[in-house]
Structures are given as structure tokens and as C-alpha cells.
Design goal:
238 residues; Leucine-rich repeat, LRR (right-handed beta-alpha superhelix); single chain; repeat; Leu-rich_rpt_typical-subtyp
Length: 238
């Protein structure tokens, strides 16, 4: 992409606060963006070939939305965690194996997309995020859901298409969790904590495509309680 084209994009971004440059084969984060650290509210660089996010990302202190879907990122810089106003972070379809240690400092984060990466565990850093609404961890290589998950504040947790065979009973302690997606994993029925049904806030549990028949779920203790929540929620949105 020529310099004049980039310049035009930068001028537009200065006025609108939005820099969007998708599907242009970019191999690196445009350095010129640092001229706009105080202007930008949204950066969307999806469908490129960016391998590295530079430390200067931490300077965009007014950024609310960062979208880097379908790039080639293998790691994220610690500086990313300085973005105190960031509400939306989409990193679907990259090669991430873990999140920076300080990720829990992204205190405004509401929506996090990490589908289609190489995560092997549910990142414990997510438990420090008090405003998190939706977390998408589908299509990773996660094998179990640990005890720390009980502190997760999310309303919706998507773990579809992983390799999960174990789930901590503490998932039923999540104070705000309403939607739990566990489709196409490796769960035996005996490994699904019954407290999800009998003693949680969860009103939509999606478990198709595991190692048991869905109708067996209906025989579990607590299923009636779950159905009460499910039906009440459905009525609310009907």
C-alpha cells in the first residue's frame, strides 16, 4: 500500500477517531499511527499478516476498541495492558498461546474475542476484570476449566470446540454467568458439575457434541431448576 493511501487513512482517522485498514496484507503495525495516540478511539487491522504488536500500542490511552482478527500474532506486549479505557478487544484467528501477565489491568474491558488461537488454558488473568461481559475462547486447545474460573465476572463464556474433559465445580459460583457454551468438547456426563444445573445463575447451557446424549442431561438432579431459569430468561426476551 502506497504512502499516499496511508496518509489519506491517517487524515480520516484524525477527524473520526477511527483507523480501519483491513485485508491489505500489512505485515506490521503502522508506525505512523503513533502521531494519533490522543485521537484514536478505534483501531481495526483485521485480515492482515501482522506478526508483532509494538510496545507503542500502550500509548493509545483513549483507545476503546482494538480489532486484530485474522493476523499472525503469537504474543502480545505487556504495554497493551496500559490501555485503561479499552472496552473491546478482538484477537480471533491468531496464534496466541497466552496473555500478558498484567492483562488483568485492562480494567474497562467488556468484550474479549480469542477464538481460534492456541490457548491451552483459561487465562487466570481474566478473573481480575470486573466489567467483562462476553469472553469467547472457542476453537482453542483448552483441556480443563480450573478453580479460578469461579471468580470470573463474565455474563457469557464461550468454550465451544476445545478439548475440555474437566470442569471445576466452582464455575457455578460465577456471580454473573448466564450463558455457558461448551459444545463440541470431550466431556463425559459425569464430568459436568451438577451444581451448574442446581445451584448457579446459568440460564443457557449449550453442551451438544460431547461424549453423552443430550437427553441424559435431563435425568440429572437439578435439571428442573435449570429449566426454570432457562424458561424465565426466555420469557424475558420474548
Amino acid at each position: 500500500m502506497g504512502n499516499s493511501a496511508l496518509k489519506a487513512h491517517l487524515e480520516t482517522a484524525q477527524k473520526t477517531g477511527v483507523f480501519q485498514l483491513t485485508g491489505k496484507g500489512l505485515t506490521e503495525f503502522p508506525e505512523d499511527l503513533q502521531k494519533l495516540t490522543s485521537n484514536l478511539r478505534t483501531i481495526d487491522l483485521s485480515n492482515n499478516k501482522i506478526e508483532l504488536l509494538p510496545p507503542l500500542i500502550g500509548k493509545f490511552s483513549f483507545l476503546k476498541s482494538l480489532v486484530l482478527n485474522n493476523n499472525k500474532l503469537t504474543a502480545l506486549p505487556e504495554e497493551l495492558c496500559k490501555l485503561k479505557k479499552l472496552e473491546t478487544l478482538h484477537l480471533n484467528g491468531n496464534h496466541l498461546r497466552q496473555l500478558p501477565a498484567a492483562f488483568g489491568q485492562l480494567s474497562a474491558l467488556k468484550t474479549l474475542g480469542l477464538s481460534g488461537n492456541q490457548l491451552r488454558a483459561v487465562p487466570t488473568q481474566l478473573c481480575g476484570l470486573r466489567h467483562l461481559d462476553v469472553v469467547d475462547l472457542s476453537k482453542n486447545q483448552i483441556q480443563n476449566v480450573p478453580d479460578t474460573v469461579g471468580e470470573l465476572q463474565a455474563i457469557e463464556l464461550n468454550l465451544n470446540q476445545n478439548q475440555i474433559s474437566q470442569i471445576s465445580v466452582r464455575i457455578s459460583h460465577c456471580p454473573r454467568l448466564k450463558v455457558l457454551r461448551l459444545e463440541e468438547n470431550c466431556l463425559e456426563l459425569s464430568m459436568l458439575p451438577q451444581s451448574i444445573l442446581s445451584d448457579s445463575q446459568i440460564s443457557l447451557l449449550a453442551v451438544e457434541g460431547n461424549l453423552f446424549e443430550i437427553k441424559k442431561l435431563r435425568e440429572l438432579e437439578g435439571y428442573d431448576k435449570y429449566m426454570e431459569r432457562f424458561t424465565a430468561t426466555k420469557k424475558k426476551f420474548a
